[in-house]
């Protein structure tokens, strides 16, 4: 395909055009106003929000007036509406750039310090749940830089915004996730009441995830545990509770003790054959024999793997993609964040962190029980 001409060259190739008439100031102002989204009244003045309070109060353990008053204190967040949407359509993904955001010296040094400080808790979590210490430490590092970045949005504001004011109209390829956030708002309100937490003081991400491990309210209620033994679950001020909760989350979502996360693979050159392997995305559905039947070449460990695999494609901007064969454990990491790029960042950070710790002479689990790929 021919490259587009620079603007100046394109203009020079055409006869001069008459200058367009300037739009009148009033017309321009009217056009700008039409493009702006309609300003919603405060949540406390909205019938849909108050109807939610009336319908949900009893099941959530609140008095109707109490829940009405609480939701009236929530504030719509335009920034949340902007951040929840996907990037521009057609924007090239780049695993190399994504990797550099997380696997960098400052975060790794913080990971070493975190592992040294919480070595006993990480070892206990690995023994109890079968998840390697470096994977647990990696998720906390990737999610919050070891507690340094836990989010500055009030969770009530973020969840109310995404429940009642999910962006509309949606760009191509995006879907309305307000039903998901409606349930998470319900879970948040129950969580606050059950644990005696002030719903107006809890802060988190733009999606409403909170604490060292960035748990959504529903995940907090289902998978968080009291790992420090003080009688209550605290994912915001107790990194030990976060360690146990991350490990429990992964175990409950299918983590298999001792299984590698992925294997090396050479994909077939044929586009149709590759498409056959990519059809299941991150969900492992094909065994090693099926991989090789269409021309993929697995490492010896991959060929010996007893269980389903998924072909994972990581795009590299304008360069050729990178491929690995993901196992159940790779898929489990994507249950924490539904992105193969996220999962690979967690896995590679964990592997690098373990290597750095090993270089200091500190004990690290044997490779057989760790997250590393099979060669």
Short précis:
This protein has 375 residues and is of the alpha+beta class. The protein contains 18 helices and six strands.
Describe the structure.
The chain is an alpha+beta fold and 375 residues long. The protein has two domains: 90 residues, Orthogonal Bundle (Helicase, Ruva Protein, domain 3), CATH 1.10.8; 203 residues, Lysozyme (Orthogonal Bundle). Helices cover 50% and strands 7% of the residues. The protein is built from 18 helices and six strands. The strands form two sheets. The chain has a four-stranded antiparallel sheet. A two-stranded antiparallel ribbon has the order 1-2. A hairpin with a 2-residue loop joins strand 5 and strand 6. Helix 7 packs across helix 18 and helix 11 packs across helix 12. The N terminus is likely disordered.
* H-E string: HHHHHHHHHEHHEHHEHHEHEEHH
How many structural units, i.e. domains? 2
| Average pLDDT for all residues | 89
- Rg over C-alpha atoms, rounded to the nearest angstrom: 25 Å
Strand content: 5-15%
What share of the residues lie within helices? 40-55%
CATH class of the largest domain: Mainly Alpha
**What is the CATH architecture term of the largest domain?**
Orthogonal Bundle
Distance between the termini: 40 Å
Low-confidence stretches: 1-24, 27-37
Organism: Roseateles aquatilis
GO biological process, one term: peptidoglycan catabolic process
InterPro entries: Lysozyme-like_dom_sf, Lytic_transglycosylase_MltB, MltB-like, SLT_2
GO molecular function: peptidoglycan lytic transglycosylase activity
